[in-house]
Amino acid sequence: MELAAHNLTQPVIPGLLGNNDIVRESELIERHEAGSKTVGTPFVTNPRMTCRNVEVYYGEKCAINNVSIDVSHNEVLAMIGPSGCGKSTFLRCLNRMNDTVPSCRVVGEICLDGVNIYHPSVDVVPLRARVGMVFQKPNPFPKSIYDNVAYGPRIHGLTSNKAELDEIVEGSLMKAGLWGEVKDRLREPGTGLSGGQQQRLCIARAIAVSPEVILMDEPCSALDPIATARIEELIAELRTQYSIVIVTHAMQQASRVSQRTAYFHLGDLIEVGPTEKIFTNPKHRLTEDYITGRFG
Ligand code: ADP
Predict the structure, then answer these.
(1) C-beta separation of 58 from 100 below 8 A
(2) Number of domains in the chain
(3) pLDDT (average), residues 8-30
(4) CB-CB contact of 238 with 214 (8 Å)
(5) Quick one: which atom of ligand 1 is closest to the CA of 103?
(6) CA-to-CA distance for 235 and 35, rounded, in angstroms?
(7) Which residue's alpha carbon is nearest to atom 5 within ligand 1?
(8) Cα 79 to ligand 1 centre (Å)
């Protein structure tokens, strides 16, 4: 699909926590006239991923409508909005997880480090290592803790001997904040861990293949408040090395963990901006209605 000219000329955020007010009213009006409903600052100066004019259809039904946004390095980007607005659909586009849904069609361009991930030459297996995913419900494989983390490095041939594999497993469990709790029981089944530990195991499994981006689809919704707090701390630590895109229905979680927030509504990306601005001074009435509880 051809890129709409307006997307190439829109302002960008100079650095992640730049001044939101650089978007002038006239530019916002231009965007509306060009068909994009998004206000705020969807673009950054040094993007890891760029999404342009993305549309997603399930059969004839349009679930995502002309969405353009960047994902920066070392940021947590939160995606919020009422149920059914397309957050998960959009998240799953970022590593082609929607390929597994036969009726699903993705239009537009999504690039990782400048390469269109939907180009026919792109192999989805290494792509999903580079853009890993953590799901709502922890889903460890029915294998040992060790083998859960070693699985990815093994299938991607990342190590040549046991010592190297041991090192990756230990390093990944450490980064996921789980090593201390499991180091003496690596041969026990991953499914025997608590819910919060299982989710951290799934994060360790994603980290083990050295991703650039980690997608998280409501990663705490099946967890208790203490396990949730632990995952949120972990997300803050992981940001120093990875880009993280998180779908959450909990606005407080978005405000705690993210640097930028994107608000979706009925398949449209309504507003993107520094999280603090979105929650204290949104530009769009629909965003304001949602964050103040008048909608959704
Ligand atoms: P959210 O994550 O914001 O709750 P979803 O991305 O799950 O929203 O859904 C967006 C829209 O796409 C909804 O109308 C939903 O019914 C529809 N949808 C999601 N998955 C499928 C699917 N596999 N087949 C058909 N429609 C789907």
Answers:
(1) no
(2) 1
(3) 41
(4) yes
(5) 24
(6) 34
(7) 86
(8) 15
**95 CA distance to ligand 1 middle (Å):** 17
On whether residue 183 sits in a domain, the answer given is no
- The tokens describing 273, both together, are 């901006």
Question: Which pLDDT value is given to residue 296?
Answer: 61
Helix pair angle (162-175, 195-207), 10° resolution: 130
Flag whether 114 is in a domain.
Answer: yes
Q: What is the pLDDT of residues 180-237, one digit of tens each?
A: 999 999 999 999 999 999 999 999 999 999 999 999 999 999 999 999 999 999 999 9
| Site residues for ligand 1, CB cut-off 6 Å | 58, 63, 81, 83-89, 101, 103
Q: What is the pTM of this model?
A: 0.89
Measured between alpha carbons, how far is 146 from 174 in angstroms, rounded to an integer?
13
Tell me the C-alpha distance between 244 and 104, whole Å.
24
Residue with the two structure tokens 């000329």: 9
Instruction: For residue 65, tell me if it sits in a domain.
Output: yes
Closest CA to 56 of 102, 7, 108, 122: 108
| Residue identifier of the C-alpha nearest atom 19 of ligand 1 | 89
Looking up tokens 């009006």 gives 29
Of the pLDDT bands very low, low, confident and very high (cuts 50, 70, 90), residue 37 is: confident
